[in-house]
Fold this protein.
Amino acid sequence: MDKLRNTLKIGKVLTIWGWLSAALMLTGLAVASNAAAAGLLAPRDGRPPLTLSQQHVSVVIENGYAVTEIEQTFSNPHSRDLEAYYSFPVPENAAVGQFTFWIDGQPVHAEVLERVAARQLHDQQKQLGNDTAIVEQNGYQTFEMQVSPVRAGDDVRIRLVYLQRTSVDHSMGRYVYPLQEGGVDEARDSFWSRNEQVSEAFSFRLRLRSSYPVDAMRVTHGQARITQLDSGEWELVIDSKAGNGAGTGTGLDDQEVRERLSADDYLIDGRPQGISDLPGTPAGTAHIAGQRAYSLDRDIVVYWRLAENLPGSVDLVTFKEAGADTGTFMLTLTPGIDLAPITEGRDWIFVLDKSGSMKGKFPTLLDGVERALQSLNPADRFKVILFNDKARSLSSSYLPAGAAQVQDTLRQLGALQAGGGTNLFDGLQLAVKSLDADRTSAIVLVTDGVANIGETRMTGFLQLLDKVDVRLFTAVMGNSANRPLLEGLARFSEGFAVSVSTDDDIVGLMLQMTSRVIHEAMHNVDVTIDGVRTHSLTPDKLSRLYRGEQLLIMGKYSGSGMARVQLDVELSGQPKRYESSLMFPVESLDNPELERLWAFATIKELQDQQSLIGESADSEQGITDIALTHGLVTDYTSLVVVRDEVFDDARIERRNARRIQRETLARESRTGQAIKPSRQDAQSPAFNQPRHTTSGGGGSAGVWLLAVFVGLVVIRIVLACHDRVVSRGADRLRHD
C-alpha cells in the first residue's frame, strides 16, 4: 500500500486573482510583436543566413497526454556550406526524447548521451565535415538545435518529438504550441539575429481523441479548419503556403458589426463563449501574399470544451510489456464535489514587475489592475508595489477600496514607464513587510522575467516566505519566464502559479481562475491504492486541490488484477471519502509513452528539490541516470545524431532508436482503432455530482465576467473593422 499525504493550510481568497489573470491575458492583444520568437539564429557578424523553408507540426492528444511532432526543412541558397542554429521555447512540462536527422535520404535517430560527451562527439564530427546534429536544453528557457553541415544549394530535414501530460480544468482542455521566447535573455539576443519566417509551407494539425464527448474546439488567433469527426474526436488544421499567406480573419462589414453588437449569440448555454469563436477575430500577424508562408512569432493556443454535466470520474491508463514484472500507470481523478463559494474581506498586495522586459505590456496591465481594484469588496484594502532595480510602494499604508483611492492609484500608475532590471526579491520583501497580522492577506505577483538583481537564490525567497502565513498567487508571463522559481514559491506558500501565453484565450482562463479562488479548496488530501503494489509515485506530495483541477498521479505497479483507490479529503472541516475500483492489467501495450512521461515527472520532482536545497552530485546523477535510461533531454543530457557507422565505432547502444520504433508503432495502432475508454468507475461512480465547469456558482462573478467579455467583444470588432479599413486602403494604394 502506498500513500500520498500532505496537510493543507489554505486561506480563503477572492475573485481578484481571476480579474488580474484576465488582464494579463489581455496583453496578447497588444504585445505579441514585441517578444522574441522561435526561429533560425544567425550571428550578427555578417555571415549569410539560412532559410527555414518548411515546418509541419502534428499533434495527437489522447489518453491524458499529447504527442507533438515537428518536421522542418532548412535550405542553404548560398555557395558555401553552413550550419543551422534553431531555437525554440521550452514547452511547459515537455519531455523531449526523439530527434531524427535525414542523412543521405535516410532517417537516423538521435541517442541521448551525457551533455559533455554529446557535445564532444558532435564537435568532432563537425570538424571532420561529417553530418551531425545535436539538441541541448538551455535551462528553463529554450531548446537549442544545431545541424551541420547544410550543404551549399541543398536542404536538410529534421524531426523533433516531445510528450506532455494534458489535463482538463473546469471541463476545458488547453494545448499551447509555444513560439514566443519572451525576450528575457538580452546577452544572447545581442549576439544572435533571428529569422522567424517560414518561406514555403507551414502546417499545424491537431487531432483530439477523447473518450468523453467534446462539444467545442477553437484556436485563439487566426483561422483554422476545425472538423468534428465523432463525439470525442476533433481535428484542427492550419495550413499555409507561400503566395497564399496564413489566414488573418475575414473581417466584418458594417451590417455584421450592428448584428454582433445587438445579438445574444455570443452566449452558449447562457455563458460567454471564447472570443475567437466570433467571426473576424484578427490574427497575430498579417501575412502578405507572396512574401512568406508563416511567421513563428505567436503561440498557437487550442482550447476544447467537454460536454455539459459529465460526471466526476476516475481514469486509469497503463503500459506493461508481456512478461514484465513492472508496469507504468497514470491515474486521473476528476472530482465531482460540491465546493462552497466563499466571501470575506481581506488585504490584497499587488506586486507588479515594471522592468524593461515589461515594455509594451505594462500599459495594458494597468487596465487590468483598474478592473481588479474596482471589483474589491467594501471591506477589502489594497496596496500596490512596483519593482524593477528596486521596489517601492505607491502608498505608505493600505488603502480602502473606495472610488477616490482607486482613481488616485490608477492616476499614479498611468504616469509610469517600464524599464530597468528585475529585483524580484525586493518586491516580495516589501510585500511581506506590509502584511498585517490581524488580517487575512494574499499577494498577487506578476512577472515575465527572471530575477537578475539582488537575491536570486530559491533559498533566500523561501526564508522570506517562511516567516509569514500568506498565499502567493503568481502569473508567470511568457514562455521564457523562470517557471522553476515562480512555481516553487507559489507551491511553498500553498497558492498556485499560472503560466500565461500572450495568445491565451482571455475569457476562458479568466473563468477558470475566478472559479478556483471563489470556492473552498480540498484540504488534507490523501490517496491510497490497495490490492496491487504501487511504488515510485509522482507527485510524492499533494499540496492542495482547487475547484476544477484534476489530480494526476503517475507511478509503477507490480503484479496485476483488481485494486481499490481511496481519495480522502477535508471539506468545511469535515472528512469525506471517495472510492473506486481499478483494474491493473497483466499486459497493456497501447501507451508506451507513459514510461517517458513518468521519467520526466520524476526528473521534474528532482529538479524541484534542487531548486529548494541546491544542486548536489547525487541529484545530478539521479537526473542523468533517469534521462539516459528513458532517452530524455535535460540540463545534463543531450540528443546527438551521427552516421550509423559512427554510432557503431563509438559503441553507442541504439536504445533510443528501439524505443522510438516501439512508440511509433503504438501510435499508428491507436490511430487505426476506436477510442478506448479509460474510466474505471463507470459502474459504481466515485463522485455523486458532475465535474466542475466555469458556469454556475460564484455570486456576482458571472455578471463581472460578462461585462468584461462584452467590452472585449467590442475591442475585437473594432480591431477587425480597423484591419479591414487598412486592408482596403492598401488595396487602393496598389491600384493607384
The mean pLDDT is 78. The CA atoms of residues 271 and 695 lie 7 Å apart.
